[in-house]
Amino acid sequence: MMSEKDVKTEAGKEAPSGLRPVGLTFSSFFYGAAGIYYLAYPFLVQDPMIIPLYVLGALSLIGSYGVMKMTRWGVWLGLLLFPAQIIAPAFALQVVLQLPGITQNYEAIAFAASWVALIFFASLTFLLVLDKRKSFR
Prior knowledge:
5 helices
């Protein structure tokens, strides 16, 4: 006979303790990857004075840890990072798309594609964290 906890788990109401949902693992990975991207980007474009990207990168890495550990502050930090993780790539994408000859420069195309990917994964991560926010401690 199944216990009440097993019945709840099978119905999809409650995950077993100790297991992190796959969506939150993905979200934690994305926050970490985005944090590294935001920290490395100023050095790649040789403009180390882009201070907001350092802050966004550091907060993304901290948010990655919080989501991985499934802490309540991790969910809040993850949700609060969403607007910044959409606005920063959107402004950079707007600048890149105004460059003349972007369609002939493969580096510029890859750069624009990376910003589009950041926007997409930031939106997906926001939805995944928002969906599982009740499972955080």
